[in-house]
Amino acid sequence: MPDRLVELYRRLADKVEEIDALVKEADRADPRARGRFSAQWDELAALVGRQKPVLGEIVKQAEEVSSLSAFLQTHYEREKAGLARELHDQLGGILTPAKMDLSWLQTHPGNDPEYAQRLARLAALLDQGIDLKRRITEDLRPSLIDHLGFAAAVQWYVDEACGAAHIGHRVTIGKLERLPSDLEIALYRVVQESVTNVIRHAKARNVELIVERTGTGLRVAVCDDGVGIDDMDAARKRSHGLTGMTQRMRAIQGTLDIRSRRGEGTRVEAFLPIAA
């Protein structure tokens, strides 16, 4: 909103200057013409001029909020990454030896008739605990991002999420170099939020993810054939997810464009400027 307000003011100021030049030219041709509205025109020009400090303050505050948002998101992701490592190391250090001891016990059966049944139940519980640990750590910080990069991580996520939701999906990823970690996780979260919204709200049958490297940057688009969004402004006010995606992209100097029409699905497109 501040960006659009500043742009609107600049356009208005440019138009006022343009008209003022025309008025002065007309005044030189016929001095009597300006007298009929000179007071009103001078008042408008002065009003526009007085708004410059106000707009400057709005720009300053918007930049401060954007900077704070970028810091918080980066700090938040690093905290999650640290927690994921700690869970993996500490909880894994507990569950793995327990699983090894259980395997030993299973090869040395006791005399109690319930022995084997209880061991089987304990084995199932341990397997559930190991799987829960894996899912939590992957949600906190996808390991594929650190090991293989953004492309592999989003391919895996879309396959897993859409497969579990029984939604048809197609992933098209062009040749892509590795990016700094903060950029990759921000783009991954945008894809994650977009696909989650499709699964929860869109009632879509198909989802498509497109990742394309262009000469000026990286384009990431998530498209669906769902019910669409009637009122985008109202949706932004209701959904912190849409606002969060916009702020994520703004924090890494990127842009987010959301286009949707009722009954025609939704397209979420993120663009990150990157030098060739």
Distance between the termini: 31 Å
Strand order, main sheet: write it out: 1-2-3-5-4
Number of strands: 5
Q: What summary fits the major beta sheet? A: 5 strands, mixed
Number of helices: 9
Alpha-beta classification: alpha+beta
Using only CA atoms, what is the Rg?
Answer: 28 Å
> What's the CATH H-level superfamily name of the largest domain?
Histidine kinase-like ATPase, C-terminal domain
Helical content stands at 55-70%
Shape assignment: elongated
CATH class of the largest domain reads: Alpha Beta
Secondary-structure arrangement, i.e. CATH architecture of the largest domain: 2-Layer Sandwich
- As residue ranges, the low-confidence spans are none
CATH T-level topology of the largest domain: Heat Shock Protein 90
The tally of domains stands at 3
Which helices and strands appear, and what pairs or packs with what?
Blueprint lengths: L1 H28 L1 H5 L2 H69 L8 H26 L2 H5 L2 H16 L2 E6 L7 H22 L3 E8 L3 E8 L7 H7 L1 H12 L3 E6 L5 E8 L3
Parallel strand pairs: 1-2
Antiparallel strand pairs: 2-3, 3-5, 4-5
Defining traits:
Heat Shock Protein 90; 276 residues; 3 domains; 5 strands; alpha+beta
Molecular structure report:
The protein is α+β, with helices and mostly antiparallel strands. The chain folds into three domains: 2-73; 74-140; 146-273, Histidine kinase-like ATPase, C-terminal domain (Heat Shock Protein 90), CATH 3.30.565. It is 69% helix and 13% strand. It has helices at 2-29, 31-35, 38-106, 115-140, 143-147, 150-165, 181-202, 232-238, 240-251, and strands at residues 168-173, 206-213, 217-224, 255-260, 266-273. A five-stranded mixed beta sheet has the order 1-2-3-5-4. Strand 4 (255-260) and strand 5 form a beta hairpin. Helix 1 runs antiparallel to helix 3 (38-106).
